[in-house]
Specification:
Helix Hairpins; five-stranded mixed β-sheet
C-alpha cells in the first residue's frame, strides 16, 4: 500500500476506535459512530476547501500544508505547479528570443489569426505599414492595409505568387507581400522592401529603350549604304561581294534585334489602352500566308484549322506579334518538308491557339527557361536561323497583358507544341464551332 494511504488510514482507524470506546462507555454506539464520521467528513471537506481556495486564487499563494493523503495531493500539486512554471518560463524565453530576433529583421513580419485579425508584428512592419501598438492589435489586417489589391490577394487564399504594392504610409516605398498559411488557417506575412529592385528594373527598361532608339538611326544609315553597295556588287571584285552580302545579313539581324528590343520595351512600359475586337481567323490566315512565304523552297506542310470565328478582346499589334513569333519559329526550326499545324479552338475554360510541329524538339531542361530574354536552347541553331532570343520573351509579355498563359510541350526527336490559353472573358463571340 502507498505510504500516503497508510498515513491516512491510521488516523481514520484511531478515530473509529475512539468512537467505539465512547459508544461503549456511554452506551451510544450509533451516535458515537455518526459523530466520528461527521468529523472525518468535515476534515475532508476542509482540505478540499483549502485546495479549491488555492486554485481560485490563481495558484499565486503558497500551497497550504497538511498530512495524510491530502498532504500527498498538496505536495504533488505543488510539484506540478513548479514544473509548469519552469515550462512556462522556458517557453516564454523562447518566445522572447524569437520576437527579439524577428524584431531585428529588416523585413517586416506579421502574424494574423484565422479570422484575419492582427496578432503581432515586428518593428519593420510598423515602419512599412504604419502599425501602432496596442491600438492595432486584434484589428482586421484588411482594415489597416486599405488597398483593393491586397484585400483581393489576402481573401483569395492563393499565395503561390507574391503581391507587390506601394506602402500605405509612403507611396514611394514598394513592398512585396508573401503569405504562408499555418496552424488552423493562421497566416504569417513577410513583407520585403523591393523599392531598390523596382528602381533598377526601371533603369534597365529605360536603358534598353534608349539604346535601342539610339542604335536605330545609325544602323539605318549603315544599312542604306550596304544596300547601295549591294546594288553595285556586279561591278565589284567577287571577294567584296561576299563581304557585302555578309554585312547585309548581319545588318538585317541587328535590325531584327532592335525591333524586338523596342517591342519588349513598349510592352513593359506602355499603359494598357482600350482593347480592340480582334478577328482571329483573318489574323491567323494572314500570318500563315506569310509563314508559307517564309518557308519558300523548304516546302513545309502548313495547315490552319480554325474551329470558331471568335473575336478576341485584345491589342491587335501585340497579338499579331506573339502569334507570328510562334508560327515563324516553327518554320525556322522545323526541318525541310516538316509538318506544322496551327489550330484555334474553344474549350470550357476559354480559347487557345496551338502551334505544333514535328521538328527536332527541345530538351526538357530547357523548357522552363525558353521565355527568358536571350536564352538559347541551341546557340548554333539560333545563329543559323537568325533568331534574336527575344521572340518567346515577347510572347510571354503579350500573353501576360491578355491574362493568358503559355504552355510548352516538347520531346527530343518528336517535335514541339506551343499553346496560348486565353480566359473565356476575353472571347467576345459565341458562335457554333465550324471547320
Amino acid at each position: 500500500m502507498n505510504p500516503a494511504w497508510r498515513r491516512e488510514l491510521r488516523p481514520l482507524l484511531l478515530l473509529l476506535a475512539t468512537a467505539l470506546a465512547a459508544g461503549y462507555f456511554f452506551n451510544e454506539f450509533s451516535f458515537s459512530f455518526a459523530f466520528a464520521c461527521g468529523l472525518y467528513i468535515l476534515w475532508q471537506w476542509l482540505q478540499l476547501y483549502r485546495l479549491h481556495h488555492w486554485l481560485q486564487q490563481g495558484q499565486s499563494t503558497q500551497l497550504p500544508s497538511t498530512y495524510g493523503i491530502w498532504g500527498s495531493i498538496f505536495y504533488q500539486t505543488q510539484r506540478l505547479q513548479q514544473r509548469s512554471q519552469k515550462h512556462q518560463q522556458r517557453l516564454q524565453a523562447i518566445i522572447n528570443r524569437i520576437q527579439d530576433s524577428t524584431a531585428a529583421l529588416q523585413d517586416a513580419v506579421l502574424m494574423v489569426d484565422s479570422h484575419g485579425n492582427l496578432e503581432w508584428w515586428n518593428r519593420a512592419a510598423g515602419e512599412f505599414l504604419g502599425l501602432k501598438a496596442p491600438v492595432d492589435v486584434g484589428q482586421p489586417i484588411t482594415n489597416l492595409i486599405r488597398n483593393p489589391l491586397f484585400k483581393g490577394y489576402f481573401d483569395s487564399v492563393n499565395y503561390d505568387e507574391p503581391l507587390s504594392i506601394p506602402s500605405p504610409v509612403n507611396a514611394q516605398l514598394q513592398l512585396q507581400f508573401n503569405i504562408t498559411l499555418f496552424g488552423r488557417k493562421d497566416r504569417l506575412i513577410l513583407v520585403h522592401d523591393i523599392t531598390r529592385l523596382k528602381q533598377l528594373e526601371a533603369m534597365r527598361k529605360d536603358f534598353v529603350a534608349n539604346v535601342s532608339h539610339e542604335l536605330r538611326t545609325p544602323l539605318t544609315v549603315v544599312s542604306g549604304y550596304i544596300e547601295t553597295m549591294d546594288m553595285a556588287a556586279d561591278s565589284l571584285p567577287p571577294r567584296w561581294g561576299r563581304m557585302i552580302s555578309q554585312m547585309a545579313q548581319q545588318s538585317r539581324r541587328m535590325e531584327s534585334l532592335i525591333t524586338d528590343l523596342l517591342m519588349l520595351s513598349r510592352l513593359e512600359t506602355s499603359h494598357q489602352n482600350q482593347p480592340d475586337s480582334v478577328s482571329i481567323r483573318s489574323m491567323l490566315e494572314t500570318i500563315v500566308a506569310d509563314a508559307r512565304a517564309l518557308s519558300g523552297d523548304r516546302h513545309h506542310q502548313l495547315t490552319l484549322k480554325v474551329q470558331s470565328d471568335d473575336q478576341l478582346k485584345g491589342y491587335t499589334d501585340e497579338l499579331h506579334s506573339a502569334f507570328s513569333n510562334l508560327i515563324f519559329n516553327a518554320v525556322k526550326y522545323t526541318q525541310d518538308g516538316g509538318e506544322i499545324q496551327v489550330s484555334w479552338s474553344r474549350h470550357p475554360d476559354g480559347v487557345r491557339l496551338c502551334v505544333k510541329d514535328n521538328g527536332p524538339g527541345i530538351d526538357e531542361h530547357h523548357i522552363p527557361r525558353l521565355t527568358e530574354r536571350f536564352y538559347r536552347a541551341d546557340p548554333s541553331r539560333n545563329n543559323q536561323t537568325g533568331g534574336t532570343g527575344l521572340g518567346l520573351a515577347i510572347v510571354k509579355h503579350v500573353l501576360l497583358r491578355h491574362q493568358a498563359e503559355l504552355e510548352i510541350h516538347s520531346t527530343l526527336g518528336q517535335g514541339s507544341e506551343f499553346c496560348c490559353h486565353f480566359p473565356a472573358e476575353r472571347c467576345l463571340t459565341d458562335t457554333e464551332p465550324t471547320i
